[in-house]
Amino acid sequence: MSTNTTFEWLETSANVAAKRLLGCELVREVEGVRLRVKIVETEAYDQTDPASHTFGGRTARNNTMFLGAGHLYVYFTYGMHFCCNISCGSEGFGSGVLIRAAEPLEGRDYMEQQRNVEGVAITNGPAKTCQALGIDRQFDGHTLSSAPIWLVRQPALPEQAITTTTRIGISKAASAPRRFYITNNAYVSRR
DNA sequence: TGGACGATTGACT
DNA sequence: GTCAATCGTCCAA
User: Fold this and answer.
1) CA angle, corner A186, sides to A180 and A191, nearest 5?
2) Residue A25 near residue A38 (C-beta atoms within 8 A)
3) Buried b vs exposed e over A157-187: b needs ≥16 C-beta within 10 Å?
């Protein structure tokens, strides 16, 4: 099993971590099935950012983002959806990267069942990706170096393969260019 | 302790 | 393009 033991490469700013995570794989084992996806769209958030959950300081909800790099921060939103982030930076500084979309590499059938749809809609959004991978609140705080969910680092993509834009669905700091995605990837979210 | 508001999605006009 | 669903979190009072 190829798992990472350290996350030094994520002990950096959210912006840099968000770009480094593009192309990396997230592996999930559930009910004896292995699911594997490639991260294709991310957004950066940190304590200095009014749009971040950590802007107001450490709370019970956002605690995972303060644990240091390599933890899964899962939050519940709109009364019905879960979204997941990968924490980055140093312990004590609330920062992380929202996984907005991913491309299925293995276990596509299982993901389609979870989502009850076919095509790119299985993972082309943050809550969709969580649902496809069966990620919910119980995994908040999980360290991404062990089963049943772990991260596999991949070589950094060339800058030219990455598109940078403003983030989606936020009202504060809406003009900050902190959304990153793999140019022309079919699974990148639309709205 | 009440109420506004979300790092969204899917259905509908 | 517009809008409802649905509830945990946070802050003002």
Assistant:
1) 60
2) yes
3) beeeebeeeebbebeebeebebbbbbeebeb
pTM over 0.70: yes
CA–CA separation, A37 and A175 (whole Å):
29
Model confidence over A69-119: pLDDT tens digits?
A: 999 999 999 999 999 999 999 999 999 999 999 999 999 999 999 999 999
Which nucleotides of chain B are near protein (any atom < 7 Å from a CB)? 5-10
Closest alpha carbon to A97 in A2, A22, A191, A4: A22
Find out whether the peptide bond into A126 is cis, omega within 30 degrees of 0: no
Contact, A131 vs A137, CB < 8 A? no
Average predicted confidence (pLDDT) for chain A: 96
Counting beta carbons within 10 angstroms of the beta carbon of residue A90, is it exposed (0 to 12), middle (13 to 18) or buried (19 or more)? Answer: exposed
Residues 76-135 of A with CB under 7 A from strand B: 77-81, 83, 85, 96, 98, 115, 117, 121, 125-129
* Main-chain phi, psi angles of A114, to 5 degrees: -60, -40
Q: Are strands A72-77 and A81-87 parallel, antiparallel or unpaired?
A: antiparallel
Q: Is the CB of A51 under 7 A from strand B?
A: yes
CB atoms within 10 A of CB A67: 16
CA–C1' span, A186 to C1, in Å?
Answer: 23
